[in-house]
Amino acid sequence: MVNSVQGLKDICNQNKDLVFLDEFLAGYTKLTEREDKQLRYFCKTELKGIQDLVKTLDGADLSEIDSAISGLWFEFHSKWIRFNAINNYNAVMNVEVNPLYVLQSASITYFISKIEEFIEPDKLEKMKKIMTDVQYSS
User: Fold this and answer.
1) Cα-atom radius of gyration of the chain, to the nearest Å?
2) What is the pTM of this model?
C-alpha cells in the first residue's frame, strides 16, 4: 500500500485530459454539445475530489491511507448505485435512458476499477458484500 497515494496521483495525472472519456464517446452521437460539456465537467470534478484526497494523505500512515481509499471506493460505488437506479428506472418506466446519466455511470465505473487496484482482494470482496447487502436489503 506504500505506493497507493502515488497510484491515486497517477490516476489523476493520467486522466486529466479525459482520454478515457474520448474512448467512451467514440462513435457515440447521442450527447448534445451541452451534455458533452456537463460530462467533462462531471469527470473533472470527480478527479479533483481524488486529487484533494491525495493532498490530504500526504504523510499519512498506511492505515489512514487504506481507510481513505476504502472510503473513496464506497463513495464512488454509492454514486454508481444512484446512477444505475436512475438508468434502470428510466429504462423500465420511460423506455429510454438519459445518455448523459449512462455515460456518467460508465465514468464512475472506470474510476472504481482504478481505485480497486489499491485494495486488497479479500477486503474488496467484503466491501462489495457490504454494498450488495445495503443495496438489496429491505
Assistant:
1) 16
2) 0.88
> From CA 107, how far away is CA 50, in angstroms rounded?
14
The amino acid that residue 100 corresponds to is L
Q: Which three cell numbers stand for residue 60?
A: 499519512
Question: Using an 8 Å Cβ cutoff, are 1 and 67 in contact?
Answer: no
Residue matched to cell numbers 493532498: 55
Please say whether the beta carbons of 119 and 73 come within 8 A: yes
Cβ-based burial of 66 (10 A; exposed 0-12, middle 13-18, buried ≥19)? middle
Question: Which 3 state secondary structure label does DSSP give 137?
Answer: coil
Distance (Å, whole) CA 59 – CA 32? 43
CB 7 within 8 A of CB 118: yes
pLDDT digits (tens, 9 = 90+) for 38-80: 999 999 999 999 999 999 998 899 999 999 999 999 999 999 9
Burial 105-126 (b: 16+ CB within 10 A, else e): bbbbebbbebbbebbeeeebee
